[in-house]
DNA sequence: AGATTATGTAATTATGAAAGTTACGTAATG
DNA sequence: CATTACGTAACTTTCATAATTACATAATCT
């Protein structure tokens, strides 16, 4: 399956924005991210609905952080993206009347629910300020830019 | 993303096999599962490598459970499928030198690792016999067969 | 006012992984 | 030796994410 990298991408954008005071254009952000400005606008557009960023048009316009990073958790960002699907593993047939199917779905479902709860709990415990601090602890090299990308495991 | 339903599918197959003493052909299993015999052979072929099932060719041939279901955990089945990818959410760029990227990957990675550990721990605690028992507790209707299928959330 | 710079979005295309299908080889049985 | 089944490679289909194109709208600067 192709993994959804929107959360990773948007966090990357936000932390880069945190390094600047002036608004950054989607063009500039796209270059940092090795992607297309439209992708940036789509992602940040979702965050704007939740008040995490603001945007301005025209000369000197662009995107700005709209909240204290200490008050924004990883979970807030996840939610702003409208709860992306977490698991790559799914049930074969959600609505079957087959009892075997239902038992499988039920038992697996319990495990996935527990794992999801733990994951989201962790997300709530990490603020963007924490992540930004983590960046500065290791600050030495400059950002670089290569394509690729993948999963956890 | 399209969710991977192989684990769900193969569990479905195994629990159906548990209801029969004779070997079942991939043709018969495919019909129960509303899928193609080749798909069944592919899935069960992976399980055979781990000794979970056995197969025989020719007349009267087919697939048989090769282990006591009490001794096979959900994790064993997961592993037999060669550790399918668990998460639909991934890092944008696994190998970037960008420190922001690395911080994002690291922080998110910790949460995902914790969730994965919990999920797999749960998988280890459930045997196929447990799942089979769960089926029999609710045994009343007959298996039925409709297509579709999806995720958790 | 009018040129320029940005965002806002719809529509289209590209990518990649799972799933399904076809085709044919191999082995075991009646 | 015909039939039944597995064993697999190769190909096609499906579908969601990501990237791209195209164009509208709004704000700023000269």
Summarize this structure as a short list of keywords or feature phrases.
homodimer, 153 residues, mainly alpha, Arc Repressor Mutant, subunit A, two-stranded antiparallel sheet, 6 helices, 2 strands, elongated, DNA-binding, WH-like_DNA-bd_sf (chains A, B), Tscrpt_reg_Rrf2 (chains A, B), WH_DNA-bd_sf (chains A, B), Rrf2 family transcriptional regulator (chains A, B)
Helix and strand layout, with pairings?
The structure is a homodimer of 153-residue chains.
Chain A: H1 6-17, H2 26-33, H3 37-49, E1 53-56, E2 62-65, H4 74-80, H5 99-125, H6 128-137
Antiparallel strand pairs in A: 1-2
Helix pairs in contact in A: 2-3, 4-5
Chain B binds a DNA duplex (30 and 30 nucleotides) through residues 1-6, 25-27, 35-39, 41-42, 45, 55-63, 85.
């Amino acid at each position: 399956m192709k993994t959804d990298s929107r959360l990773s991408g948007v966090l990357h954008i936000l932390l880069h924005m945190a390094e600047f005071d002036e608004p950054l254009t989607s063009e500039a952000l796209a270059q940092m991210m090795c992607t297309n400005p439209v992708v940036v606008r789509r992602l940040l557009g979702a965050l704007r609905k939740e008040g995490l960023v603001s945007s301005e048009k025209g000369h000197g316009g662009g995107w700005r952080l709209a909240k204290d990073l200490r008050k924004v958790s990883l979970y807030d960002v996840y939610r702003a993206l409208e709860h992306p699907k977490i698991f790559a593993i799914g049930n074969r047939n959600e609505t079957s009347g087959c009892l075997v199917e239902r038992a499988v779905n039920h038992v697996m479902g319990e495990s996935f629910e527990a794992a999801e709860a733990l994951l989201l709990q962790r997300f709530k415990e990490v603020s963007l300020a924490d992540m930004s601090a983590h960046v500065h602890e290791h600050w030495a090299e400059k950002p670089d830019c290569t394509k690729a990308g993948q999963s956890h495991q």
